[in-house]
């Protein structure tokens, strides 16, 4: 083989032919060398084999290795000519199908076969061959020709590089948008986007509109990857970041020039449209609309990437919003002209007749095993893009939320609406924070948290106008606390994990809850230090400072409130992810009813009381100044104090407190209902020898154990409370559950201008109230069927349906 040289082929077909010729030449050379051996050399080789026969007795023979096919054994012993790589490889496969089915017949349902080297992990990680969805080779036939490369397709005339008709441009553009959407849904870049041969070498395309559009797509891929990497909220099941990087690296990305290039092509085509008759310019305008949509979409996404270097975050977000507005206005026009472009051939995997080769990368090495992929249809792809643009516009509103409380509420709501789109979640993260140390552009996280506490419950020590704010000891303690909060990174991580998919959020919340414990300890320490300083200032005769520092619970309340919210989201997300068995509903609803929701209501009520007390103290001080002051300034104060007599006291958390009161009643109703259904024999319970309720309970509440506040509740305490509840009759439990649902209904009906979630909860409360009353009267008493729990209206609370 050393004397054989081959040139580098230009395409895959040439490479195959060259390799086959090289293999044949190697075989001929080997035959010539073996014929030239002398008899003495043959005798020497024979003596060496006889000498080594003793040591070779311990080796495995060909038949013992499992190659039982006689033809295969003869081929292996004979050292036949080199294998022709154009043919399928020949191995010593043995058909064990019958033996396999016989072995499987011995297993009972639910049993698994396990070996020392093959357990459940290997079984779940194994690739299922012969299945078209898993085995990409099933789509091939041995007589199929290799898919053509870009150069081969051009040489064969399969694709056009110049003078494309408007219908052909529309078809290619729509197909590329469909491939982009399929990539954002988690498919491999190689198997969707780079099946388009035009993306392999856009610089060689002579048609200006197609060339610029393909360059824009390549740069958009780079920008999207950078945004997702910077946000760092993607998981392997969400998105595949890496593909054939050599294809992207062939031409250097220059995203800053893309908008200008697209605008030049648009203007050129618009001038061309004006010279055409009205009946002929519609297809060309459809091309212009797609180029314009790509320009504004690209600018919006590229500006998101540049948020970290923006001088003003608000100006950058406003510019992004303008581009998104234009893009959303163009989409209806584009959707009406989909049929004007070339359409996919029926039965073909290619999204467009020209320019696409679906199997060109099937033999490459993608980051995951190549699987069968169906690219989205064009109307569904544009619907996806329309929804994605709407989500981007909604994400721009995050700039309005200047404190942690409102920003966290926005992120939680956005997480429910964003669905599985990783780009939408990543865009929000980049709009809010480009670094774990920054928020809203270049504002430090420490300053952001300081402002957030002030907005939440307004501690006097954070009010720069208050005299106590100038106390050096107070400022030293505050600086230490907020530096610790920033270094722990707990609050920033709470916001960041809202960008992960719903399943990963729950996993990460379990670790986040543990981090709240040291923050709670530090917040309590800070409040106690403030109380000590209050006593010191009182002894010094500084009543103003003492009053501001006394009975301080501002910081511990703020930390506890956020901790309780994380705990509630973690616990209730199990219903959304369908992790809980029906018989577990009892203690899952019991914990929020007995502890968690009550803690949230208590924290918010305490915060409102603090704000009201500060408001009353401020009014009292102003009255003292009015009564004790004189001159013009006193007259001005008296005039300004008159409207305060009828001023309504502010209750910023009243709506949220009412909402949590409704949740408290709903959790109580479900807890009592599950107790009644269990006692009535309507809930299927697992067999005791296969189940341990204490282990289940401990695992469900394991993330809460490290916390000192609220203290963990043991299984023994829960069992004691449940046993006490079960002493009541079934009818009494049904009646109590009905009362809880009725209370929830009354609370929800009192909310003015309710959102859709409130209306859904109201329907659940009304329906379950009727069901509990029906069961309390003995309906279907003899028929012990488990009811259906319908979570279609709300992810946390079901409608109980009797079968």
UniProtKB/TrEMBL annotation:
Q: Which residues are in the NAA35-like N-terminal domain?
A: 109-207
Principal cellular location given in the protein's record: cytoplasm
Q: Where is this region: Disordered?
A: 33-65, 343-371, 624-651
Where do Basic and acidic residues bias regions lie?
38-51
State the GO CC annotations.
NatC complex
Ribosomal protein: is it a keyword of this entry?
no
Any one Pfam family here would be Mak10
Biased composition range(s): Basic residues: 636-651
The listed locations are: Cytoplasm
Which domain of life does the protein's organism represent?
Eukaryota
> Per the database record, which ranges form the NAA35-like TPR repeats domain?
395-800
Keywords from the named record: Cytoplasm
Give the UniProt family note: Belongs to the MAK10 family.
Q: What is this protein called?
A: Protein MAK10 homolog
Species annotation: Drosophila albomicans (Fruit fly)
Which gene underlies this protein? LOC117570829
């Amino acid at each position: 083989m050393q004397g054989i040289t081959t040139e580098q082929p230009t395409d895959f077909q040439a490479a195959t032919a060259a390799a086959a010729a090289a293999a044949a030449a190697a075989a001929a050379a080997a035959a010539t060398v073996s014929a030239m051996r002398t008899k003495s050399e043959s005798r020497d080789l024979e003596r060496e084999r006889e000498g080594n026969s003793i040591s070779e007795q311990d080796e495995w023979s060909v038949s013992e290795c499992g190659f039982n096919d006689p033809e295969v054994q003869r081929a292996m012993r004979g050292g036949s000519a080199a294998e022709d790589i154009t043919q399928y490889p020949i191995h010593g496969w043995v058909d064990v199908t019958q033996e396999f089915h016989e072995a499987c017949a011995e297993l009972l349902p639910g049993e698994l076969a396990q070996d020392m080297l093959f357990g459940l992990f290997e079984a779940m990680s194994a690739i299922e061959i012969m299945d078209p969805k898993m085995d990409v080779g099933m789509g091939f036939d041995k007589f199929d020709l290799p898919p053509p490369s870009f150069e081969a397709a051009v040489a064969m005339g399969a694709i056009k590089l110049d003078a494309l008709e408007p219908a052909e441009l529309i078809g290619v553009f729509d197909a590329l948008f469909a491939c982009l959407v399929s990539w954002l849904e988690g498919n491999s870049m190689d198997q969707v986007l780079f099946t388009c041969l035009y993306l392999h070498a856009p610089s060689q395309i002579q048609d200006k509109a197609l060339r610029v559009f393909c360059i824009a797509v390549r740069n958009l891929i780079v920008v999207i990857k950078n945004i997702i990497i910077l946000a760092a909220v993607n998981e392997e099941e969400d998105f595949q970041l890496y593909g054939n990087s050599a294809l992207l690296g062939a031409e250097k990305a220059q995203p800053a020039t893309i908008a200008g290039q697209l605008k030049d092509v648009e203007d050129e085509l618009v001038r061309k449209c004006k010279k055409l008759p009205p009946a002929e310019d519609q297809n060309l305008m459809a091309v212009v609309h797609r180029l314009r949509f790509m320009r504004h979409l690209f600018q919006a996404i590229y500006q998101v990437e540049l948020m970290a270097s923006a001088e003003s975050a608000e100006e950058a977000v406003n510019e992004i919003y303008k581009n998104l507005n234009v893009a959303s206005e163009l989409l209806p026009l584009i959707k009406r002209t989909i049929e004007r472009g070339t359409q996919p051939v029926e039965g073909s995997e290619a999204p467009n007749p020209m320019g696409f080769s679906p199997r060109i990368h099937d033999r490459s090495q993608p980051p995951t095993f190549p699987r069968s992929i169906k690219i989205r249809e064009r109307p569904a792809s544009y619907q996806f893009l329309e929804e994605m643009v709407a989500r981007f516009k909604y994400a721009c509103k995050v700039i309005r939320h200047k404190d942690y409380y409102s920003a966290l509420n926005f992120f939680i709501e956005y997480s429910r609406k964003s669905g599985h789109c990783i780009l939408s979640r990543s865009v929000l993260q980049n709009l809010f924070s480009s670094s774990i140390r920054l928020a809203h552009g270049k504002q430090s996280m420490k300053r952001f948290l300081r402002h957030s506490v002030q907005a939440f419950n307004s501690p006097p020590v954070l009010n720069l106008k208050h005299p106590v704010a100038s106390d050096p000891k107070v400022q030293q303690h505050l600086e230490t606390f907020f530096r610790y909060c920033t270094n722990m990174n707990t609050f920033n991580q709470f916001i960041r994990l809202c960008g992960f998919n719903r399943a990963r959020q729950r996993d990460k919340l379990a670790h986040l809850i543990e981090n709240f414990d040291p923050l709670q300890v530090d917040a309590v320490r800070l409040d106690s230090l403030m109380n000590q300083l209050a006593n010191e200032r009182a002894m010094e005769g500084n009543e103003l400072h003492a009053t501001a520092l006394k009975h301080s619970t501002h910081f511990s309340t703020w930390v506890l409130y956020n901790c309780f919210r994380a705990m509630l989201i973690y616990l209730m997300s199990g219903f959304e992810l369908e992790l809980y068995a029906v018989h577990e509903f009892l203690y899952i609803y019991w914990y929020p009813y007995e502890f968690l929701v009550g803690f949230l209501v208590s924290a918010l009520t305490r915060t409102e009381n603090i704000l009201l007390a500060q408001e009353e103290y401020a009014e009292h001080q102003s009255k003292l100044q009015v009564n004790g002051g004189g001159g013009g300034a006193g007259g001005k104060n008296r005039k300004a104090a008159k409207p305060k007599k009828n001023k309504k006291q502010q209750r910023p958390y009243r709506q949220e407190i009412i909402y949590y009161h409704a949740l408290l009643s709903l959790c109580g109703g479900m807890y009592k209902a599950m107790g009644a259904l269990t006692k009535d024999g309507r809930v299927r319970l697992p067999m005791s020898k296969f189940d341990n309720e204490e282990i289940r309970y401990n695992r469900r509440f394991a993330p809460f154990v490290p916390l000192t506040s609220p203290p963990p509740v043991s299984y023994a305490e829960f069992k004691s409370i449940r046993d006490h509840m079960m002493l009541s009759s079934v009818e009494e439990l049904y009646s109590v559950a009905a009362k809880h649902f009725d209370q929830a209904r009354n609370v929800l009906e009192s909310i003015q201008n309710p959102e859709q979630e409130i209306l859904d909860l109201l329907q659940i409360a009304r329906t379950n109230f009727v069901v509990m009353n029906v069961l309390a009267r003995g309906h279907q008493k003899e028929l012990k069927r488990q009811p259906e729990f319908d979570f279609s209206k709300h992810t946390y609370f079901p409608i109980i349906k009797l079968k």
